[in-house]
Amino acid sequence: MRQLLHSKAMRTAQSLRHVHVHAKHTPFLFSGFSFPRTTLYHTRALSSASASPFSQQHLEEPDDQHYHHHHKEPDMQRIKLVASRSQTPLSIAQCIKLGESLSTKSLLKNLIFLNRELPVRFSKRILELDSLPEELKKTEPFMNLANNYSSSFHALQEYSDNSRLWFLSPSTYHREEMELDDSEGMQTAIQREYADLLQTVTNRHKQDVVFMAHGISLFKYYQQTRSRPADEIHHFLNSFNRGRLGIRIMVGHHLALQSQLLHPMQHASSSPTASKAPPTMMGLAISTTNSKRVGIIEPQCDIEALINNATQSAQFVFFQHYNTIFPPQVHIQHSKDAGGRRVRFPVVPALLHHILFELLKNSMRATAEFHGLDKTSYPGKMRALTF
Fold this sequence. Notes:
Elements: H1 2-15, E1 38-41, H2 64-70, H3 76-83, H4 92-100, H5 104-130, H6 134-137, H7 140-162, E2 166-168, E3 175-177, H8 184-204, H9 208-226, H10 230-262, H11 264-269, E4 298-302, H12 303-322, E5 330-334, E6 344-347, H13 349-371, E7 382-386
Parallel strand pairs: 5-7
Antiparallel strand pairs: 1-7, 2-3, 4-6
Enzyme class: transferase
Catalytic activity: L-seryl-[pyruvate dehydrogenase E1 alpha subunit] + ATP = O-phospho-L-seryl-[pyruvate dehydrogenase E1 alpha subunit] + ADP + H(+)
GO molecular function: ATP binding; pyruvate dehydrogenase (acetyl-transferring) kinase activity
C-alpha cells in the first residue's frame, strides 16, 4: 500500500512544474577550509615565462549547427530555481567527526545531505559559466565544461527525483526524509547505488583542470583583444575553482569513507607512507605520514613531510625536463611559535600537496632560467616558512 501511495504521489509531483522543495537543516555542511597559513617564497624576485596565446581559431564562433550538435541546452529555469538555494558550509572538523563515528547509518545520513547539496552546487557552477561572454561560452573548452556540469546536474537531480531516499506526501507535495531502514542490506544497496553515480560524476570531470587551463589562456587573449576588466575575470576564476574544489572534496571524502566502511581490513593494513613519484590530485588520496587518515583527511598531517614530498616530486619533474641532477634546493624554516616542534594540523593532503608542488615546480624552473641551466648550485635557497 505504501509503495502504491508513493508511486501515485511521484506521478502527481512530476505533473507539477513549480513545486517548491523544502530541505531541512543538516549538521553535515560544506563550503571551504581554513588552513594554518603556509608561506613559500624565494630570496630573489624571479621572472616567469609567459604562456603563448592560443590561435584566433579558438575564439571564432562556431556555426549554430555545430554548436547545438555538441551542446545540449540545459533547463535553465530549473537550474536557476535550484541555484537560488543557499550552499551549506562544511568544515574539516565536521568531516573528521563524520569519519570518526563512521557507520552505515551515519554514512547514509551524509548521503542524504549530498543528495540535496550537490545539485545546488552544480547549478551555481553552471550559472557562473553561463555568465561568461558569448565569445567565450561558445569556445570548445567552455562548451565541454558547460556540458559536463549540465550532465552531472541533471544526473544528480534525476536521482534525487526518483530515489528511494524520499517519499512524497500527497497532501502537501513537500518532500520529507524517509525513516532510515534498519536493514543493513537496504542501506548498503542504496549507498552502492549512489556511489556508482558519484564515481560516474567524478570520471566525467577528470578533464576539468585541462579545460580550465585552456580557458585561462583564452581569458588572457580575450582580455588583451577585448579589454575585458581583469578583476571580473579573476573573480570568475576564483569563484569557479573554489566551488569546483568544494564539490571534489565532498564527493571524494564520501567515497573514501564508504570504501573504509566496506573494506576496513584493507585500509587498516595499508601504510600510507611518502612516495617519491609525482602524485595525482584526482584521487584525493595522497598521504605523506603514518598517521591514520579519515576519508581524504589527515587529522594530524605532518606538514614538513608534506613539503618534503612535494619538493621531491618537483625535483623529479625538474630533472626529467632539464636533464640535470642539480635542481634548486628547498630549506624548511619553522616559526618560532612552533617551539621547534614539527607542525601538524588537519588537512586534505592531496589538495595542499598539489598547491605546494605547483609552487615549487614553477619556482625551480624560474630559478634555473634566471641563473642559467649549467649551474651546479644556485645562490641562496628556496625557503618554505610554516606558521
